[in-house]
Structure prediction request, 175 residues.
Amino acid sequence: MRWITMRWVGALTAAGLALTGCGTDDKTTTAPTTAQAAAPWDACSIPDTLIRQAGLDPATKNTSPTGAQWQGAKDCGWQGKEAGVTVVSNNTGSLEQVRNKYGNRDFVTVSVDGRTGMQYHDGSDTDDSCVLVFAVRTGGLVGFLILRNPLSKDRTPACEQLRPIASMLVPAFPA
Prediction:
């Protein structure tokens, strides 16, 4: 289904930039060479059984739903009958950066499967989309983004739709 891909390009670009922790510091410094940072967790590694339990179709897996990858980030998406979900992970962002990103709004602290995270909308969001983001102990963030199918008759708020989906998938991501 092409509806989610086109709609998510803008929303995920904004969210991905927030999740990757873009900065505005123009200072240049020389630092000793160190080992390259570990690759971010790959959401496409979530088992198909969990994807099905979350109401998504494993056959719709898209390994780059936004058509772009951000430095230090990976994304993967799936579609269900009522909505599409994309999971974005990075190894550099922080919840504070997400909270401070211009346009992000409506922050709510949430607990999903015993993990505390943050639910929010970005400036481009409508009632048909929502973001849940969690910090991981290894550094960085994992974010869940939902976009309701525009043909869906289900008018449940997107954030209410996303929480049970996330609860099925949270056990698969890093601590």
About this structure: The chain has one domain: 2-18+39-172. The longest strand covers residues 73-80. The first helix runs from residue 2 to 20.
